[in-house]
Specification:
The chain is an all-beta fold. It has one domain: Metal Binding Protein, Guanine Nucleotide Exchange Factor, Chain A (Beta Complex), CATH 2.170.150. It contains no helices and 17 strands. Strands 4-7-8-12-11-10-9 form a seven-stranded antiparallel β-sheet, with no helix packed on it. Strands 6-5-13-14 form a four-stranded antiparallel β-sheet, with no helix packed on it. Strands 1-2 form a two-stranded antiparallel sheet. The mean pLDDT is 94.
Length: 167
């Protein structure tokens, strides 16, 4: 499959290609351990995450809001709309004297097949100190719009980087 100038990377054993993910996206439970570190603290440590898989995007992990460090999230004025999931609300994250604005989002009333995302929140991995899937450090999806988590078992190329707008 050719996408603009980028060529699909063939997945090896135990890998997934983002070009095999569906559109519209699929929501699934993930048994993997998800940890997020920010401000020198662990703000999330859970095995109850869900992940959204969409063509050309690395997975986005959504964690139960009750598995986020109490008091760390504060509602933001920012919102956005997803054609599949509905209206998103954003959060600022504060730990100690460090705050990152609009770094996490949730779908208070997710639409369609995404109803199970209610009560879950996703984080931009590139704006955290470190995100881990099991014990592997995550690389953030390219660009500043999408929030995908790249691990060694996911191959692209990934939408979000320079020249990928038309994919």
């Amino acid at each position: 499959m050719i996408m603009g100038r980028a060529k699909r990377i063939e997945p090896g054993p135990g890998q997934e290609s983002v070009w095999d993910y569906p559109r519209p996206p699929r929501l699934e439970d993930s048994p993997r351990r998800i940890r997020i570190e920010f401000g020198g603290e662990t703000v999330v440590d859970t095995r109850r995450a869900k992940r959204v898989l969409e063509t050309s995007h690395p997975p986005v992990y959504y964690v139960p809001v009750e598995d986020v460090r109490p008091g760390a999230l504060r509602p933001s004025d920012r919102s956005s709309h997803c054609e599949w999931k509905g209206r998103a609300s954003y959060y600022d994250l504060t730990v100690g004297d460090r705050t990152e604005a609009g770094v996490a989002w949730t779908y208070p009333r997710p639409t369609g097949d995404f109803g199970p995302l209610a009560g879950h929140v996703a984080f931009y991995p590139g704006r955290m100190d470190r995100c881990l899937v099991d014990d592997e450090a995550v690389v953030a999806q390219p660009g500043d719009f999408y929030g995908g988590w790249v691990t060694s078992d996911i191959v692209g190329p990934f939408k979000g980087g320079r020249g990928s707008m038309g994919w």
